[in-house]
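ARCHIVE CARD
Drawer: 12
Card no.: 0347
Subject: one protein chain, sequence and derived structure
Cross-reference: see card 0346
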Amino acid sequence: MDLVEEMLDKLIELKVGIVAHYYMDVELQGILFAIKKRQMELLQSDTSGKIPKFPLVAIADSLKMGDDAVNMCSQSKVESIICLGVDFMSESVSAILGKNGFSNTPVYRATHKHIGCSLAESAEGLNYKAWLNKSAAGKSKALHVVYINTSLETKATSSSIIPTITCTSSNVLQTILQASAQMGPEELRICYGPDTYMGENLVSLLTAVLESKWSDERIKRDLHPEHDQASIRALRDNTDVYPSGNCVVHHMFGQSVVDTVMNDYSDAYVTAHLEVPGEMFQIALKKSLVDDGVVGSTSNILNFIERKVKEASEKGETKRLKFILGTEAGMVTSIVRSVQEILDSSSSKGVEAEIIFPVSSEAVMGVENDGSESATSSLEVVPGVAGGEGCSTAGGCATCPFMKMNDLDAVQDIVDMIGRSSSDGSDTLQLQLNKHLPPNKLGGKKINGRDAIDLGTEPIVFMREFMQSKKMSDSLVERIEKMAM
């Protein structure tokens, strides 16, 4: 708690905000949550006006990180942002700040090193451009739906080739449903990329609706009011998925993990991020049809677990709820914190919640008997956990090595560097800080005569408009119609 007080004091004094992704390591997330909680406690009794009203720390998914940064600048008057994630996230946060009038607010990464992302990088090569050019060929209407977890350069290049809208894992289904309904499911080709698993899972979901023989009425009620069996079939058949884009973390949810879930946890609720391989997704999808599971984004998973725990608590049940966590292990921090709050506030004390990490069998190893009476020759352990490290790639749990490049020491160092720079203004310190800025591959560049950064943020703007109005923007529709002529 001494560190929490010290960090909060520095953030307030230096007017620094921190936006972090859900996938940070446990220690760092614990400190960040505590800083935010302490700020809100101090705000309750603050009469000096020194405590900012909007939290200086936010932990969220990649889209909301940008929104929180804007709110920190506008409501709490922060003068710099520390972004804890991978490089494309800091790049996106910086672009969103620029679009909202805060282009002079620097965004700093926790390290000067490149923080990559296998999924984002799979869309940055010639193969992805070739796929887009092939999709744009011909006179049919085509829309590129690109996952937000990609670089600004990918979004800009895509927009220059084919009309493009960004999506998140929580709104991708509604995006393709609305686009198809609005522009004709028989006429519009949806090109989804770069996440192959997510694209294939979307097709599987639509297929499940058809094979389960959902009535037109149920489709209109539960999926989209302008769709029916015929239009869902047309949408499925007209969806083209990029074949070579995967996240190294979600790739860990293969057949071995599926076998473990099926054999040992048949009574558990199953959650699966849209990015996990099809085998794991299919289990969660089937469970979701009877409300025993969920498929979707990190927020969807968190909301589902919260709802199930709350329902059991309100019923006064005595039971142990089991949840398979089908996403990156860093999510457990937010889940445990939220579940604890629900259980602590409930009058029912008979509910327990267990979060289960599926671990690949290849990661499990035997421990030899040391000769003691308590030792068991058949004891099996996961290396990362046995070493006291929690989940790790060596331990077989789904954890992102790139995200873990953000650690507590690095955050403290960058805050101290900002403090020293503001006090003495040395050029050397500023040069050091500049190394922590996001990559700026598009600065000053033009593509087809348009500013490259504007072109890269356009798909995000189209998504924002869709989220607000629940329909594709007129300018996006116009672009699609124009390309088909």
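Annotation on reverse: DSSP finds 20 helices and 16 strands in the chain. The first strand starts at residue 16 and ends at 21.
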